[in-house]
Design a protein that fits this description.
Layout: H1 6-9, H2 13-34, H3 36-44, H4 66-71, E1 87-90, E2 100-103, H5 105-121, E3 129-132, H6 140-152, E4 155-157, H7 164-173, E5 178-181, H8 183-196, E6 207-211, H9 217-227, E7 230-237, E8 242-248, E9 255-257, E10 262-267, E11 281-287, E12 298-304, E13 306-307, E14 319-320, E15 325-326, E16 331-333, E17 336-338, H10 340-351, E18 357-364, E19 367-375, H11 385-403, E20 408-412, E21 426-428
The chain binds 5'-O-[hydroxy(phenylacetyl)phosphoryl]adenosine.
């Protein structure tokens, strides 16, 4: 499979590290001169950004957290004057106050290069017709991929998050060969196709590039099967740039991080201690080419592992494992810690496919209670009432076995769980 940027994607590690060091020096000098937060921080720890001589010097700088960015809202983390900002995007604010991120002209060029890498690694070429099914707006998915796909020379359909039926009509009539979207959207696409009796053979689709939220290997297999396409994962976050931070290649076993733009580290989320390759922890990223919104050692909140190994695709960029959990995902139920993923695994095993589900947590008589709502869809046991009746006790039993408590399990009608661009897996009503 061809590589979009041979030079940087296959660069040998010593050469890459030299390039990273030079870019890091520029970034640290820039943030020290232009962002008061970093100026104060470096002064406080007596850190001279012009004296760094090795990548390991980065470890001397404390982490940057989302709280710092929130305090700096709207523009205090910007490292260029607004007249040099050509674009602003924003986080959704689902976990608090939204953040505004600015891009200089060079930042947009770099971002375009980065999303082109993602798309190319997922098999998109100038011969493709691609629907960008991410919202075009403050969310980074739409415009981020749009520019990258145009750069490759693909025929870009900015269909955005169109109503699913219209999306299918466009895909059919325009003979779309590739889509990029959130996995939740892909699942809805499948559902509607199923309901309308549309088969993959009626479409020209051959690849799907999914990102923006966690999704499992079971889901990949299911989508590949049901849509007759090849599916790859890609990861990014608004604060760092948007999509384009890391991407899967045809090997589909880890996401290559574009290390010529971002330096990754993995830390223990509780202690801040740096962890080694192969150890799972929180991903921390430093941007080394960003002009308008550079971040040093930003704690992403995402849990993953870094793997420095040869890849069958020929790229030398480090790989991170698929992200399934966030540090702040953890559910604490009556003092016991658990992750939504544990429930998802149980549901998938019991039902044989990953259903749409939502976990609702409430407080009753001073005790935390957890309910798992599972949406019955046309795809699983819709007409097999006997099997349906077995699901609730089977899930409850499995949860009791693995997590030692009995949840309430409720099957709900199709489309009861509200659709968002990203699936909201946990609704915590304890603080309502
Ligand atoms: O979701 C950017 C993006 C758009 C990435 C389109 C990929 C495709 P935010 O809305 O700021 O930005 O959300 C970032 O989403 O910290 C992760 O927790 C999660 N996330 C993003 N991609 C993945 C992925 C965009 N492939 C947050 N797998 C991140 C798992 C992901 N989680």
């Amino acid at each position: 499979m061809p590589i979009w940027n041979e030079k940087y994607e296959t660069m040998k590690r010593d050469e890459l590290e030299q390039e990273q060091l030079e870019r890091l020096q520029q970034t640290l000098s820039r943030v020290y001169r232009r962002v008061s937060h970093y100026q104060d921080l470096f002064n406080e720890i007596d850190f001279d950004p012009d004296a760094i001589s090795a990548l390991t010097d980065l470890k001397k700088i404390p982490y940057t957290t989302k709280d710092t960015l929130r305090l700096a809202y709207p523009y205090d983390m910007f490292a260029v004057p607004l007249r040099e900002v050509v674009r602003m995007q924003s986080t959704s604010g689902t976990t608090g106050q939204p953040l505004i991120v600015g891009y200089s002209r060079n930042d947009i060029d770099h971002w375009t290069e980065l999303t082109a890498r993602v798309l190319y690694a997922g098999g998109v070429t100038k011969d493709d017709i691609i629907n960008i099914c991410f919202p075009y707006g403050l969310f980074t998915g739409g415009l981020g991929f749009h520019y990258g796909a145009e750069k490759i020379g693909a025929s870009v359909i900015p269909s955005s998050e169109a109503d699913i039926e219209n999306q299918i009509i466009v895909m059919k009539d325009y003979r779309t060969t590739a889509i990029t979207c959130a996995p939740t959207y892909a699942a809805q696409l499948c559902e509607v196709m199923h309901e309308k009796g549309i088969t993959p053979a009626e479409l020209s689709l051959s690849k799907g590039l999914f990102g923006a939220e966690p999704w499992s290997e079971t889901f990949r297999n299911e989508m590949q099967d049901r849509l007759s396409i090849s599916v790859t994962d890609n990861y990014g976050l608004t604060e760092i740039i948007g999509p384009g931070v890391s991407f899967e290649c045809d090997q589909k076993n880890g996401l290559h991080i574009s290390e010529d733009h971002f330096i990754p580290e993995i830390i223990n989320p509780d202690t801040g201690e740096i962890l080694g390759p192969g150890e799972k922890g929180e991903l921390v990223l430093t941007t080394i080419t960003k002009e308008a919104y550079p971040l040093v050692r930003y704690r992403t909140g995402d849990l993953t592992t870094l793997r420095y190994e040869d890849c069958g695709c020929g790229r030398c960029l480090v790989k991170m494992d698929k992200v399934f959990e966030r540090v702040d995902d953890m559910i604490i139920l009556n003092g016991q810690n658990m992750f939504p993923l544990q429930f998802e695994q149980i549901l998938t095993e019991v039902i044989g496919t990953t259903p749409k589900y939502q976990i609702i947590i409430e407080k009753k008589d001073n005790l935390d209670e957890l309910e798992i709502q599972v949406e019955v869809s046309g795809d699983f046991f819709f007409d097999e009432m006997k099997k349906l009746a077995q699901i609730e006790p089977a899930v409850a039993k499995e949860v009791k076995k693995r997590l030692d408590f009995i949840p309430k399990v409720t099957l709900v009608e199709p489309r009861t769980i509200k659709r968002h661009m990203k699936q909201i897996k946990v609704v915590d009503r304890r603080r309502d």
